[in-house]
Design a protein that fits this description.
- The protein has two domains: about 160 residues, Quinone Oxidoreductase, Chain A, domain 1 (Alpha-Beta Complex), CATH 3.90.180.10; about 140 residues, NAD(P)-binding Rossmann-like Domain (Rossmann fold).
- About 30% of the residues lie in helices and about 25% in strands.
- The protein is built from ten helices and 18 strands.
- Helix 3 crosses helix 4 and helix 3 crosses helix 9.
- The longest helix has 14 residues.
- The N and C termini lie close together (about 10 Å).
- Keywords: Metal-binding, Oxidoreductase, Zinc.
Length: about 350
């Protein structure tokens, strides 16, 4: 089968390979991939900025059809259309696993990071990590379930959002746009912040229904804070870009005793920022790491109740053998979500 693999550490070293189709264990399903989205972490892997087990098939945002199943799998049938959580293996014994906080297990192995992922014809997944999808949900939109679950985790499980709260979101990429849509559905007063090169993404965000967008290179953030908050600062700020500068700006524009949620993944560590702002303003700085089972359940519920058409999020779909073009497009800052289609 075809598989897009990171073969060695460093910049590049990614190739489309022919490998054997994996064998199914008793508690697993083999999923024929329909669509798989390019994530920022996949781009970090291409650039050699994110440590992964090597060699490794990349990709973790996907939708597919159950092709084979293990002997002990009863909840899924051949032909079922499913998505899978990215957690493949955990210890199941630590305090976090006992609360289904699998994203925090020290022994966690994830699809596309420690075990082979979804940029392939087939991907293996644990049956109890899979979720059925409503028939009316288009498969392309279903490929957004993983980033949506990450946003649900940040918005609904890491903080509390009150109606009419003034909230800023840095980074108009797929995560930032999805997160802003979730916040708006909770009746928050949301401003999505980008820079000049994000003009097309900000326009797409407005098309999706995000009412307030802002270019921080055209107008100062100080003016934004004055206009939107009477200079008090935003109640909460979500940093979704993984930019050092954006984290610093988040601390600057949040109000005293406000909350900053770090959702974006940084390409390099350690991260420099002004600790005096955190102390003097009594800011709560909260990390949000991927998602957990409850995030997926809530994401499916949100899709059913919010009734927001997410299809404009998908700006390109390319065959897997055009992965280089797809990654170039994903890195140019003009697209939102790009999907790869194995066949």
């Amino acid at each position: 089968m075809k598989s897009l693999r990171k073969l060695a550490s460093g910049v590049g070293n990614v190739e489309l390979c022919d490998i054997n189709k994996p064998s199914v264990k008793k508690d697993e399903v083999l999923i024929k991939v329909l669509f798989s989205g390019i994530c920022g972490s996949d781009i970090h892997a291409l650039k050699g900025e994110y440590n992964k087990k090597i060699p490794l098939t990349l990709g973790h945002e996907f939708i597919g059809i159950v092709s084979e199943k293990g002997d002990k799998v009863t909840q899924l049938d051949i032909g079922d259309r499913v998505v899978s959580e990215t957690t493949y293996e955990v210890c199941e014994k630590c305090p976090y696993c006992l609360k289904e906080e699998y994203n925090l297990c020290s022994h966690r192995k994830g699809l596309g990071t420690q075990v082979d992922g979804s940029f392939a014809t087939y991907v293996l997944a644990k049956a109890d990590r899979c979720h059925h999808l409503p028939a009316e949900l288009p498969s392309e939109v279903a490929a957004l379930m993983e980033p949506l679950a990450c946003c649900i985790h940040a918005v609904m499980e890491k903080t509390i959002v009150q109606p009419n709260e003034k909230i800023a979101v840095f980074g108009p990429g797929p995560i930032g746009v999805l997160l802003a849509l979730v916040l708006q559905s909770l009746n928050a007063n949301v401003t999505l912040i980008g820079i000049t090169k994000d003009a097309l993404r900000l326009a797409k965000a407005r098309e999706l229904g995000i009412t307030k967008t802002f270019d921080s290179q055209k107008t100062s953030l100080e003016n934004l804070v004055e206009q939107e908050t009477d200079s008090l600062g935003f109640d909460q700020v979500f940093e979704c870009s993984g930019s050092f500068q954006a984290l610093q700006q988040s601390l600057e524009i949040v109000k005293k005793k406000g909350t900053v949620i770090q959702e974006g993944l940084f390409a390099k560590n350690p991260v420099p920022f002004d600790m005096s702002l955190l102390l003097n303003k009594e800011i709560q700085l909260i990390g949000s790491r991927t998602q957990k089972p409850s995030s997926w359940r809530k994401a499916l519920e949100w899709l059913a109740t919010a009734k927001i058409d997410l299809s404009p999020m998908i700006t390109r779909t390319l065959p897997l053998d055009q992965w280089e073009e797809a990654f170039e497009l994903a890195m140019n800052g003009k697209e939102l979500k790009i999907l790869l289609k194995p066949e």
